[in-house]
Design brief:
Layout: E1 9-12, H1 17-28, E2 33-37, H2 40-52, E3 57-61, H3 67-81, E4 86-89, H4 107-135, E5 138-143, H5 156-176, E6 181-188, H6 194-207, H7 211-216, H8 227-237, E7 249-252
Parallel strand pairs: 1-2, 1-4, 2-3, 4-5, 5-6, 6-7
C-alpha cells in the first residue's frame, strides 16, 4: 500500500478558537500546518502544542486587514513546507467589536470587516490556486457563519461579509470543479470564543437577560459550541474522502438553523 500523500495546510486566524482547533486537528492527520495570526505569542503556543503532539508546524505573524499581507501570505507559507494543498480561511472579525444599527454604523468598521472577512479569503484563495492547479488537487475551506444565511441585528457588516463569502466560495467551487479542487464553507453557530463571549454579553444585556440563562438557550441542543466541535468538519472537507463535495456550506450550529 502506498503512503498517503503529504498535504500542506495553511490556517489563518489560528492563534486561538476555531483556527487553533482546526490547525491542531489537521496536524494530527499528518499534514504539516502553517498557522497564521496577528499574535506571535499565540502562534508560538500553537506551534508548541502541535510539536508536543508529534506534528509539524510553522507560525507566521500577519495582519490580514492589510491587503499587502493577504497578497503575500501564501508564498511566505509555502517557503516553510512547500506548495499549499489545503487553505483554511478562518481569520475574521465579528460584530462584537462595535455592535450598532446600520443607521449608526461607522464606515471604517464596515471597511475593516469586509477587508478581513471577504477580501482576505478572496486574495488568499486566488494566491493558493496556482499551487493546487499544478497538482490537480486542492481544498479551500472557509469558515463562514450561520449569519451567512440568516441576519442578526447590530451586525450589518458581519452579516454582509458572511453572505458574501459563501457566494464567493460557491462561484470559485464551480470554476474549479474540473481541476481536482474543492471549495466549501463551514457555518458555525455560537462558538465559545473571545469574540463570541463579547457578543453574547452584549445581546444578553440588550435583551435584559441573565447571561447564563441566555447562553443556555442559544442552541436547541443547549449552550454554545466549542471550537473543537467545528474542527472535525474542517478535517473531513480537507480529506481525500470529501473529493465529491464542493460548493457547499455546512451548518455546525447545535440545531440553530435547520435549513
Amino acid at each position: 500500500m502506498s503512503e498517503p500523500a503529504r498535504r500542506v495546510a495553511l490556517v489563518t486566524g489560528a492563534g486561538r478558537g476555531i483556527g487553533r482547533a482546526s490547525a491542531t486537528a489537521l496536524a494530527a492527520t499528518g499534514s504539516p500546518v502553517v498557522v497564521a495570526a496577528r499574535s506571535s505569542d499565540e502562534l508560538d503556543a500553537v506551534v508548541s502544542e502541535i510539536a508536543t503532539a508529534g506534528g509539524e508546524s510553522a507560525g507566521l505573524a500577519c495582519d490580514l486587514t492589510d491587503r499587502a499581507q493577504s497578497t503575500t501570505l501564501v508564498e511566505k507559507a509555502a517557503s516553510a513546507f512547500g506548495p499549499i494543498d489545503i487553505l483554511v480561511n478562518n481569520a475574521g472579525i465579528g460584530s462584537s467589536a462595535d455592535p450598532r444599527p446600520l443607521a449608526e454604523f461607522r464606515d471604517v468598521f464596515w471597511d475593516e470587516t469586509l477587508e478581513l472577512n471577504l477580501t482576505a479569503p478572496y486574495l488568499l484563495s486566488k494566491a493558493a490556486l496556482p499551487h493546487m492547479r499544478a497538482q490537480r488537487w486542492g481544498r479551500i475551506i472557509t469558515v463562514a457563519s450561520i449569519n451567512g444565511r440568516v441576519p442578526s441585528p447590530y451586525s450589518g457588516a458581519y452579516v454582509a461579509s458572511k453572505h458574501g463569502v459563501i457566494g464567493l466560495m460557491r462561484t470559485l467551487a464551480l470554476e474549479q470543479a474540473a481541476d481536482g479542487i474543492t471549495v466549501n464553507c463551514v457555518c458555525p453557530g455560537p462558538v465559545r470564543t473571545r469574540v463570541n463571549d463579547a457578543r453574547i454579553a452584549f445581546d444578553a444585556q440588550r435583551l435584559g437577560r441573565e447571561l447564563e440563562d441566555y447562553e443556555q438557550g442559544l442552541t436547541p441542543i443547549g449552550g454554545r459550541l466549542e471550537p473543537e466541535d467545528i474542527a472535525p468538519m474542517v478535517v473531513y472537507l480537507a480529506s481525500d474522502e470529501a473529493r465529491m463535495i464542493t460548493g457547499q456550506a455546512y451548518n455546525v450550529d447545535g440545531g440553530v438553523n435547520m435549513a
